Amino acid sequence: MMRKNLLWGAAVLMILTTLGGGCLPGPGSADALKYKGATEETVAIGETLPGSNIRYVGFSEDGAELLIDDQRAVKKVGDSLDWQGKPAPGVEVAVTQRILLANETRLQTVGAIKLTVQDPFPAVAQFPDKPASSYKVAVTYTVKRGATIPGTLITYTGKTDSGAELKGVSGYPYRKIGDSIGWTGRLRANTYLDTTLRVIAYTDDFMQVGGLAIVGLVE
Fold first, then answer.
1. pTM
2. Domain chopping of the chain, boundaries
3. Mean pLDDT of the chain
4. What tens digit of pLDDT does each residue of 27-74 get?
5. Closest-CA residue to 158 (of 190, 111, 206)
6. Taking a C-beta distance cutoff of 8 angstroms, is the pair 205, 145 a contact?
7. What is the 3-state secondary structure (H, E, C) of 88-119?
8. Angle CA 118–111–14, to nearest 5
């Protein structure tokens, strides 16, 4: 039984990883920042999935015991656990996920997330130590020369002999393929971004990067 559950969970993770790799989140309209990609969450017993109405309350031989809108539900590995809502003003989240692991200490889910931040105004800021909730999204971007990486103030200025040249970073402005680009900042009064990207490719006209974005909300 355990082996069957692990194999099913591994299969789900492989599928989601493949799907997430092709996602191209971007700024959407001028007044909204949109993320769409693979996501993963892990919560301990007694905790709530970030921003949702789903609480992990226990584990038995029947499966994971949850409270969804204060109604008891029992879910097994591979079962769906979807939700959508507005966890903070100006932020909309829709998560389609499945249970990868459940035991006496924690619940782990993998899936896809759509997250929209309305009226973003990126600014340099520290990411909160303990946000009320946070969401992890696998991201890739194709950034044209002269454009900024979505959600940041980092601009790609073009290809040079030293590498891809960036404006808006602290210190050395050049990155080669495989090098990292980090950013922490505020998107709006209650919403923060912590992202680490790697350079995938760059030309005279564009730069492609990919990595992980963490969006944190404060009350």
1. 0.80
2. 2-118, 123-217
3. 88
4. 444 589 999 988 899 999 999 998 888 999 999 999 999 999 889 999
5. 206
6. yes
7. ECCEEEEEEEEEEEECCCEEEEEEEEEEEEEC
8. 135
Q: Which two tokens stand for residue 165?
A: 């040249």
Non-local (6+) Cβ contacts of 157 within 8 A are 145, 146, 165, 166, 167
Residue 209 token pair: 């990067």
Contact 145, 155 (CB under 8 A): no
As a whole number of angstroms, the distance between CA 92 and CA 85 comes to 6
Residue reference for tokens 């006496």: 104
Give backbone dihedrals phi and psi of 18, rounded to 5 degrees, phi first. -65, -45
Per-residue pLDDT tens over the stretch 70-96:
899 999 999 999 999 999 999 999 999
Task: Give the per-residue pLDDT at 30.
Answer: 56
